[in-house]
Amino acid sequence: MIYREEVVLKEQYLEELQEEYNKYKSQNLKLDMSRGKPCSDQLDLSMGMLDALKSDDDLSTAKGVDIRNYGVLDGIPEAKEFFSQMLEVGEEEIIIGGNSSLNMMHDAIARAMLHGVHGSPTPWSKLPKVKFLCPSPGYDRHFAISEFFNMELITVEMTPDGPDMDEVEKLVRDDETIKGMWCVPKYSNPDGVTYSDEVVDRLAEMTTKAEDFRIFWDNAYTVHHLTDEPEQLKNILEACKAAGNPNRVFIFGSTSKITFPGSGVAMMAASKENVDFIKKQLAFQTIGSDKINQMRHVRYFKTFENLEAHMKKQAAIIKPKFDMVLNILERELSDRNIATWSKPKGGYFISLNTLDGCAKEVVQMAAEAGVTLTGAGATYPYGKDPRDRNIRLAPTFPSLEELEKAIEIFCLCVKLVSAKKQ
Ligand code: PLP
Questions:
Q1: 11 and 74 fall within a common domain
Q2: Pocket of ligand 1 (CB under 6 A)
Q3: Cα dist. 232→87, 89, 229 in Å?
């Protein structure tokens, strides 16, 4: 008898949800929470940068190089000094690149495949197989670069402290075809996790069968705090030096989500030995990156403290969006045991896990109601989430009004799909 009542209640519940969903569907909405892009208010914060250089300004570097002309392969000294503070490395340990750190990562992999890295016994592509560790959920574009170069991607689970280090250590100890690993160590994409000191130390110290193993340390969100208590990430280059593995890490960063994505300044850092090796290879690729943009950034911010103050203004714009999403998730989903989600202190994403086997259908239903989300599975190698449960939410780009509607529809889809499965 009780069982029958439960069935009737469940049917009623499903019908109510379906009715609500159909109402949204008929509104022909078009809401996009798929990619982590700044909104236009955030971009407005950097407009002063466009006037940071005037035609009658002195347009030469401290070393007297005319920034309007060719030259300076690894970046102007002013940019090296400024951005070495952001990546916490020495000025001789940084290379200033073009407009995209992803581009620098791609090229670093391409060079490693074709020519090897400093100390490689052979170019990576000469080996029958190259494998890369992919802490997951992770950044889809990292995994895509590895796939593009025919690497085999190995999933390593993320924990609240970073990648599962027992697994990482076990894998790299015995397999010389594992040449590297992707990491987003601070406010990770999408989990918002900052690696613990212990994880950083273990990465620096671990024994790798491949003598030319490299950690691709994408510190994209290093200054992107959402609270007044920034999380602290241990300096991996120093940890690698202390562990006797100074050449193990390539660090990347950019101002894409500080100033203008696509028109920012990207950078790469590593040991001086690595940097010297890379510069020789880079010389075949370019005469030098955009020095005018480098100088524009330095003259606009002037000090690193000003950049940090600028990031507080960014946070003031996006924090209410994160709060809204988290409040609605809490209100709609918290008492049902059908989802768990991250509460990030920085970065650009909220990572949500549905019940196993529900993520694809949720994303599909949301799309049919006009809400575009990052594809389910995108946060795992080969686009395949083995438990089909992770969904990356990107709250920064839509307006608060759009976001509210989008997340309400999303929650409705989670409830509907879960109720059908349960
Ligand atoms: N790295 C991470 C972890 C990102 O999330 C993103 C963009 O979303 C990027 C890199 C892209 O950086 P860039 O614009 O410097 O190429």
A1: no
A2: 36, 100-102, 139, 184, 189, 218, 220, 254, 256, 261, 266
A3: 13, 15, 9
